[in-house]
Amino acid sequence: MVLVVLALDAVDVRHAEDFGCENILLDEHTEMKSVAHRLDHPHTGEAWPSIATGLHPTEHGITGHGEWDNPILTVASRAAHTLNVSGSIRSKVGDTIKENTNQEWKLTTVSDPTFLDGETRAVHNWPGVYRNEALQYIWRLFQDAKDDTISKETFVREAYTEAASKFGWVKEAMTYNVEVAATHIHVLDVLGHMFAEDREQYREQYQKIDERVGEIRDTLGPDDNLLILSDHGMEASWIDEDEDYGSHSWRAIASSTVGSPPEHALDVRDWVEDHVEQIEADRTRADLPEEQLRQLGYVE
Ligand SMILES: [Zn+2]
């Protein structure tokens, strides 16, 4: 039995309902309460490590949009967020720092236990937990799209092909002896920000992702289960009356094929443990031609 966990960034339960996304909504769904510490709304960088650990951002310690190599620059970057400096100005500040100091921006990962730990739990990128590079790649391109260094069309293509690599990964991972196959997919976050004023374009993105989720749902065996989670939703001009559309809403989602989904981000870890069927890792040692690999420099 495999429990597939799709971390669909920014899927807003209200939009999924309004657009009739039957696959995203699965058998049962709920508006899941998320967490926020640094800002007054949930944010990708701190919500996903909370979902994986069951700990509040103040407990797991990843509260920033990212961390700079140099702690002084981390403080400066966080202060810019707290003061609500606009994204474009903040990015320019970041670019200036990069140009002038050669500091690279990166997300750090938690040291606390998560439901993604262990040899029989397969994971492919999870912000703040395991390999942030896919998220960072998309964020970097998003900046390029805002700066007009790449076209909107190129950005949309890259967002979807990156997402496709995760959907394909899930299908492959499910064919192995694993308890959990989990991945994070960022496409509806960045395209949500892009189309938060255009209901038709926005609906199109939801329908496309709903189809991809349907393909995963179709490959579930009789004992396999699917849990879908988001970290926040997206305020949109046709729903949210303040001028804040394009920013994160509190309308996160949890849906599942197996009973009631978790109601709170901090309950997800326990929920997963309650729904996983534990298996023993096969400890057969890989028989490798050690001497040849040593000569090639592959092993020490
Ligand atoms: Zn997010």
UniProtKB/TrEMBL annotation:
One of its GO terms (molecular function) is hydrolase activity. It comes from the Archaea. InterPro entries: Alkaline_phosphatase_core_sf, Phosphodiest/P_Trfase. Signal peptide: none annotated. PANTHER family: BIS(5'-ADENOSYL)-TRIPHOSPHATASE (PTHR10151:SF120), ECTONUCLEOTIDE PYROPHOSPHATASE/PHOSPHODIESTERASE (PTHR10151). This is Phosphodiesterase of AP superfamily. It comes from Halapricum desulfuricans.
